C-alpha cells in the first residue's frame, strides 16, 4: 500500500468497489462532496445522494482494476482504471479516468468520472 | 488511426511530440487556448505563449507513449501517457494524464497536464 494519503485513498477505493464494501467507499468522502459520473450528467451532492449512487453501482458484481499509476497534481489525484460489471448473462466493461479532488483532511470533495460510449462495451 | 476527431487529435498530439513537430502540435490548438502543465502552475494563454511552451518542451529529445484508451466525456478527452526526455547523460520519465477540452471545431481550448513529483523519476 502507498504511504501517500491520496494514492492510498485511490487504492482503498478500487478495493472497496471490488469488495462491494459501501462503508469503505463512503469513508473516503467528505460529507458535502459531489460525484459527477459520467462527467456531463447532473452531479450528486451530499452523503445521502452519494450513498444512493454507490448502492446502485455495487448492486451488480463489480471488478475494478487500476490500469496505471495514480497521477497527483496539487489536491487532485487522477487514475486510469477499468470496471467490469457482471449481470449474469452479459458483462459490461468500461474504461474510466477518475478525478478525485481532496480537502485538507484528504477526504474526497469532488469526484468526476470521465468515460463515454467509446469506452464501454457489452460482452 | 481513429475516426473520432477527439481521439484522432490525441493520436496526432502524441505523434507530434515524438516527431518534435511543432506545427503538428500547434495545429491542434485554438488561438485563444490555455495550457496548464503541470496543473497548479500559472496557465499559459494564447498561441504565442503556447508556442514558447512547446518550443521548450521539444528542445530535448522526447518520446511520448499512450498508456491506455482515450476517455471521452462530452467536450473532454483524457488520456494516460508517459514521456521520456533524453538529456544525453540522463533521462527523465514522467507519467501524465492530460485533459483536453475541445471547442465546437474540435480544436483544443484547454489543456491540463496532471502529474507531480510522485510521477517523475530520473535515470
TrEMBL record, chains A, B:
Sequence ranges assigned to domain SnoaL-like in this UniProt record: 10-110
SUPFAM superfamilies: NTF2-like
UniProt xrefs under Pfam families: SnoaL_2
Protein name stated in the entry: Nuclear transport factor 2 family protein
UniProt organism field: Spongiibacter pelagi
Lineage of source species: Bacteria, Pseudomonadati, Pseudomonadota, Gammaproteobacteria, Cellvibrionales
Amino acid at each position: 500500500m502507498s504511504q501517500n494519503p491520496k494514492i492510498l485513498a485511490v487504492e482503498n477505493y478500487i478495493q472497496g468497489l471490488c469488495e462491494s464494501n459501501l462503508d469503505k467507499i463512503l469513508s473516503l468522502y467528505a460529507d458535502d462532496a459531489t460525484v459527477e459520473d459520467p462527467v456531463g450528467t447532473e452531479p450528486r451532492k451530499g452523503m445521502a445522494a452519494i450513498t444512493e449512487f454507490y448502492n446502485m453501482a455495487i448492486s451488480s458484481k463489480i471488478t475494478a482494476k487500476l490500469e496505471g499509476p495514480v497521477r497527483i497534481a496539487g489536491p487532485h489525484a487522477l487514475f486510469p482504471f477499468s470496471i467490469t460489471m457482471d449481470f449474469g448473462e452479459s458483462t459490461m466493461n468500461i474504461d474510466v479516468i477518475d478525478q478525485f479532488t481532496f480537502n485538507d483532511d484528504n477526504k474526497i470533495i469532488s469526484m468526476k468520472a470521465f468515460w463515454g460510449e467509446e469506452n464501454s462495451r457489452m460482452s
